Amino acid sequence: MLWACLYFPELPLDAVRPPDCAREAAAVLVDGPVRHPRVALANQAARKAGIRSGQSLAAARALHADVPGWRRDVEAERHLLTALADTAYRFSNEVSLAPPRALLVEVGASLSLFGGWTALERHLRTDFDGWALGYRLSLAPVAAGARVLATCRDGIALLEKSQLVNVLSDFSVSNCGLERKTSSSLSAMGLDRLGQVFALPRAELSRRIGPAALLHLDRMRGLVGEALASYQPPTRYQRRIEFDYRIDRVEALLFPLQRMLRDLGRFLVARDGGVQSFELVLEHEHQATTRITVGLLEAQRDANLLLELARTRLERVALVAPVEALNVLAEDLPTLRPLHEDLFDTTPCGTMEWPMLVERLRARLGDEAVCRFLEVADHRPDRAWRLCPLDRDPSRIAALPARRKSAGEETGLRPPRPLWLLRRAIPLRSSPLRILAGPERIESGWWDGDDQRHDYYVVQTREGQRAWAYVASGEIGNWMLQGWFA
Fold it and tell me: What is the pLDDT of residue 342?
């Protein structure tokens, strides 16, 4: 087996950083009493300013006046690490969480698929670079060993256990995952490098550092196996961002929403699926939540498209109160059908595909404003169709049973029907110039009080238009217009 470890040194900070705070800016994670917090973790910019873990927040702000200090949020860390695992799951079905800052990915079975470690590493880095998080990536034949390598250095790739032991031998005992008390005890004995520790007799070493620390050393060298829990992607997507200040404009929600929908897109790619509908939940203070449903006709996973549709629907919403938190919920996650394209695509350059146009119209005008025609089993033209919302299943619409096809329809000789059919017939302003087809007699409706007995003709008007018109059965005159042909 070969294990790739992704180590995120600033993940606890990244998990609580507000969406509008640049990652390059100095920031610290604090713990301890509310009145006297101390620095638990400082990012690279803060360390350059001289801030170190263990300092009081007041001392840190003496070095960097406006450095923000955030409290640790274990739940937010878990959410972020889980989202990162969704990205890793794209490359292997053997992914394991190593909280609070690392992921382990078994890639031995994936090397042949991607063409070796160099190519696979390139794909991994491309995907994780998109997160804009600092990380280190290493490869080793032992999971615990890969974790130690990634904690200290980036880009180490070892394929054999003998190589791993040689490299680990040069590592400091303070950087190998041992408890601080244990590493300090070893340093006090003059054992600063792991190679010195590995050379000690096991019985003597166990007596000095205890069985738990000895087990850790054995695992990192591959002398003892380690049972790792496999990560299983969730069947639903849920993310929440809480704001440090109240947002009273819809436009200000777009930046955090973009981040969340990109995360959703990565989640969908990892599980090779799409989303049919998702919900935006806006939390307000002292007000009921605002829920906005974004439904799609076909499953999609393109983050830019999802953002465009969500933004269009958000723009139609009037905020009842400032927003405290934003949630994205997605439970309708069907398998994404692959798109089949012709080798010689005849679609003109710059034109929009029909499904995308419909999605944009529904987002801007509302779901009920964009409809399709549904055929109804009735011979009367004004009752032979009805409008049906696009997102509804036509099988659920209460309609008459589908009528049996006539002999003419079976042979492809169905009488012509106009593209523009009027809801109600109106008098034709002038007599037809000539009759092109007909008559087609339709007699129906005697049982429901709307008895119709008409002879239908395709006629040409004096203006050159083709119309579908009728007269009373057996008569010529008093023409009624039922529709227009294109």
Answer: 53
SS3 of 458, please?
Answer: strand
Containing 161, the helix (H) or strand (E) segment is: helix 161-168
Q: Which residues of 268-300 are buried (b: 16+ CB within 10 A; e: fewer)?
A: bbbbebbbbebbbebbbeeeeebeeebbbeebb
* Rounded-to-integer distance, Cα 369 and Cα 392, Å: 13
For residue 115, the 8-state DSSP code is T
DSSP letter, residue 273: B
CB contact set of 224 (below 8 Å; sequence gap of 6+)? 215, 218
Q: Does domain 3-8+75-221 have CATH number 3.40.50.2300?
A: no
Provide block-wise average pLDDT over 10 residues at a time, the chain (486 residues): 95 87 89 90 93 93 91 91 91 93 94 93 94 94 95 93 93 90 91 92 89 92 91 88 85 89 88 87 90 84 89 86 92 72 49 64 71 72 71 42 42 68 82 80 76 85 85 81 84
Please state, in angstroms and rounded to a whole number, the distance separating the CA atoms of residues 220 and 213. Answer: 11
Dist CA 12 CA 41 (whole Å): 8
Give me the amino acid identity at 275. Answer: V
The helix/strand/coil state of 14 is helix
- C-alpha span between 208 and 223 (Å, rounded): 19
Token digits for 86?
A: 């969704």
- Classify domain 243-332 at the CATH topology level: Dna Ligase; domain 1 (3.30.1490)
Phi-psi region of 462 (alpha: psi -120 to 50; beta: other; left: phi over 0): alpha
Distance CA 458, CA 417 (A): 9
For the chain, what are the domain ranges?
Answer: 3-8+75-221, 22-67, 243-332, 413-484
Predicted pLDDT of residue 394: 42
Q: Is 369 exposed, middle or buried (0-12, 13-18, 19+ CB in 10 A)?
A: exposed
* Integer Cα distance of 89 and 82 in angstroms: 10
Q: How many CB atoms within 10 Å of residue 198?
A: 15
Give dist(CA 282, CA 268) in Å, integer. Answer: 23
Tokens found for residue 113: 């698929």
Cα 108 to Cα 98: distance, rounded to the nearest angstrom: 19
- 150 Cα distance to chain centroid: 28
Furthest-apart CA atoms within the chain: distance in Å: 116
Residue 169 phi/psi, 5-degree rounding, is -60, -25
CA distance 95 to 97: 7
- In sequence order, what are the residues at sequence separation of 6 or more whose Cβ sits closer than 8 angstroms to the Cβ of residue 17? 23, 27, 70
User: For the chain, what's the residue count?
Assistant: 486
